[in-house]
Design brief:
This protein has two domains: about 130 residues, Rossmann fold (3-Layer(aba) Sandwich), CATH 3.40.50; about 60 residues. About 40% of the residues are buried. The strands form two sheets. Strands 5-6-7-3-8-9 form a six-stranded mixed sheet, with helices on both faces. Strand 8 and strand 9 form a beta hairpin. The protein is built from five helices and nine strands. The protein is globular and about 50 Å long. By secondary structure, it is of the alpha/beta class. The protein binds adenosine-5'-triphosphate.
Amino acid sequence: MSLHLDEVLLTYPDGDRRVTALDRVSLHVAPGEFVAVTGPSGSGKSSLLAVAGKLIAPEAGSVRVTGTVGFVFQQANLLPALTALDQLLLVGHIGGRQDRARAQRLLAEVGLTEQVNRRPHQLSGGQRQRVGVARALMGEPSVLLVDEPTSALDHERGRAVVELLRRVTDTHQVATLVVTHDLAHLDLVDRTVTMLDGRLSAAGSAALPRH
Ligand SMILES: Nc1ncnc2c1ncn2[C@@H]1O[C@H](COP(=O)(O)OP(=O)(O)OP(=O)(O)O)[C@@H](O)[C@H]1O
């Protein structure tokens, strides 16, 4: 397993009481496994990603990650002044020849060979998201945490991004956890779990409405 969450408890202060965002949540994701987290607004999905990425420490329970974590954000969060290539080199820190070659290889892998020298405003929403995926892979993560990757995209482009995530999960054998409201692409994941009021239910994709 690359990602282990065991009995994780997380609460936030809310006036003189506390709101429970994660209520003894356990989740294990294996290398090469692609898991989707769905659930209504406020159910705890972002909290789950933040705890899994060790951005927030839980009050109780344990979080174990084998190796490093890569993040892909909702709007890709690219720096406006940098080219696609430089977005990746910034993560590589140095930009030496090896990093450059690796960044170019990753951009080619996500289908952006022609766009390496473009800045974010010269890229489509789907292409920006692809840069975000390539950037997350720069650190050779064993866990990939992805927050609403399709929210700014139409159906077709959204699906292409989820297909890309499926492919990189397989190729790089990362444990991928994607938070999504978008139920249209869940056929591409291995497993879907649902958050409700801070609790995780391991509903298999068979529990989803059939089309
Ligand atoms: N910093 C905070 N302080 C207090 N309460 C918080 C804080 N962050 C989140 N919460 C509360 O914790 C619960 C879980 O929030 P979280 O953001 O994890 O849900 P979510 O499922 O990601 O929601 P959305 O789909 O709207 O992004 C909610 O009740 C929310 O109001």
